């Protein structure tokens, strides 16, 4: 397939979305969301997510990101009295966290921040929490904060008392509970945003997939600024992803190898799984057990080495996530599918297609993958 010059420009990934199509609340139950199935180079179908087993085969492998969203948004005030809001991004060393700070320009090294607990309690029960700005980060525009904690304690242990689950900024009229922004299989705390393709799965759906002989494997990518940071350069080939922590176990590598040997298909549940598996393959030359960071950026022209199919939500315009999906099925086809989803009514379904984190999903099967020859 030839590369169109728009494939490598941010404007090539623009589209207009009516504001009412931005999902503010999740569907209940989770697997009642809509599913756009792309099953060939020319065809697609409008279904419900609970129909997923119909489109998969025995010995297929679904790979999930088991990261857990932490209560990463904290509110407080400077020692001088000004209000503060921070969003934790990642722990760079024990009790030193990179964070986005509002209002950022006023937070120079040396500024002390005192945080407000969710449920005030006597000092003898709840220890106060504070942090000091020790550095700035040019890449993210954030600050490096040193949290003042008793020896042997970590900030993660304190977040249930001080932190809020950070819904995305476009989810601003939601009645959702924090647990609805977690996958049902979340196990490893560290993300500041959910791997949203996994939000559609229920225990009942897992049971049906199991009875059909469809297997599960897990990786970890702690979703951070690298995933949701906008692409701000015109030429996307010059965009630099912020590195995020990943882990691929030897067991998952063996499951993927066994699946391929048996003729099964490896279906990534979410773009974070794609970045994890393909990022390891890019860095190491092949898929291998790995623990570290990835700054993999996938866009049209990329040759996929590990995954065969993909489950993903509908993404923001000009985002690196759209560019990753476009690498799989082509930019123009992706835009055409988005426009078709926007044009679809709720006739025959409980709602029209809804977009972004609490929105609906796409299943892209291997037969829809564009050829690179």
From TrEMBL:
Superkingdom to which the source organism belongs: Bacteria
Single GO MF descriptor: S-adenosylmethionine:tRNA ribosyltransferase-isomerase activity
Keywords: Cytoplasm, Isomerase, Queuosine biosynthesis, S-adenosyl-L-methionine, Transferase
EC number: 2.4.99.17
Location in the cell: Cytoplasm
Biochemical pathway: tRNA modification; tRNA-queuosine biosynthesis
InterPro entries hit by this protein: QueA, QueA_dom1, QueA_dom2, QueA_sf
GO biological process entries: tRNA queuosine(34) biosynthetic process
GO cellular component, one term: cytoplasm
Reactions catalysed, as given in the entry: 7-aminomethyl-7-carbaguanosine(34) in tRNA + S-adenosyl-L-methionine = epoxyqueuosine(34) in tRNA + adenine + L-methionine + 2 H(+)
Broad class of where this protein is predominantly found: cytoplasm
Subunit structure: Monomer.
NCBIfam families the record matches: PRK00147.1, queA
Protein function: Transfers and isomerizes the ribose moiety from AdoMet to the 7-aminomethyl group of 7-deazaguanine (preQ1-tRNA) to give epoxyqueuosine (oQ-tRNA).
Family designation: Belongs to the QueA family.
PANTHER family xrefs: S-ADENOSYLMETHIONINE:TRNA RIBOSYLTRANSFERASE-ISOMERASE
Protein name: S-adenosylmethionine:tRNA ribosyltransferase-isomerase
Gene name as annotated: queA
